[in-house]
Design goal:
191 residues, mainly alpha, 7 helices
């Protein structure tokens, strides 16, 4: 297993670590722990950085593999979906936003499975990468800003986070539609 693939697997391992800290953060409740909330943000930031780093190293040193093409987007989905579930539980992300994210991911995964059946591995396109970056930035805002903001203007912070979540939803739907259109031949070849 090459270094980019190890970084991808590190991201997978960091997902449950992030989830533990996020579970203890509980922003917006009496049990809010700003240090656990910040720790969740730090773990998420480290995991997000591995996404940039593994792709950079794979392209620069020609270490792109079918495993990486498959596992890298899956690791991203695991990380960002876990974060949006916790944001939903904290009341700042609409269930509609999470549903749109999940619908898109299931649709894309289905296309990839159909393609894999014919021996084709489909890598993420630029719109999927834009979607992932926007999701990661939204989560980072959610986990870092409250720690430095303290208790001042939490209503404004919540509103900004909700707007970012809806922006994520729009970009997610757009990227999914583009992905499905670009790979529509997979549906025609499915038996």
């Amino acid at each position: 297993m090459n270094l980019p693939n190890k970084l991808t697997m590190m991201r997978v391992v960091l997902v449950p670590v992030f989830m533990v800290f996020a579970a203890f953060g509980q922003i917006g409740t009496a049990a809010y722990n700003p240090y656990a909330h910040l720790a969740a943000g730090i773990v998420f930031a480290i995991a997000s950085f591995t996404d940039f780093l593994d792709g950079y190293l794979a392209r620069k040193y020609h270490l792109v593999t079918d495993f990486g093409k498959f596992m890298d987007p899956l690791a991203d989905k695991m990380l960002t979906t876990a974060a949006f579930i916790y944001m939903l539980a904290d009341g700042v992300c609409s269930p509609v936003v999470l549903a749109l994210i999940l619908f898109r991911e299931f649709a894309v995964a289905g296309v990839r499975m159909i393609a894999a059946g014919s021996g084709t591995v489909i890598a993420a396109n630029i719109w999927g990468k834009v979607k992932t970056v926007l999701q990661m930035l939204t989560v980072l805002v959610y986990y870092f800003v409250p720690f430095f903001m303290g208790s001042s203007d939490m209503l404004g912070f919540s509103l900004v986070t909700q707007v970012l979540c809806w922006l994520v939803a729009v970009v997610t739907v757009l990227s999914g539609a583009i992905y499905l259109w670009q790979n529509r031949v997979c549906f025609m070849q499915a038996k």
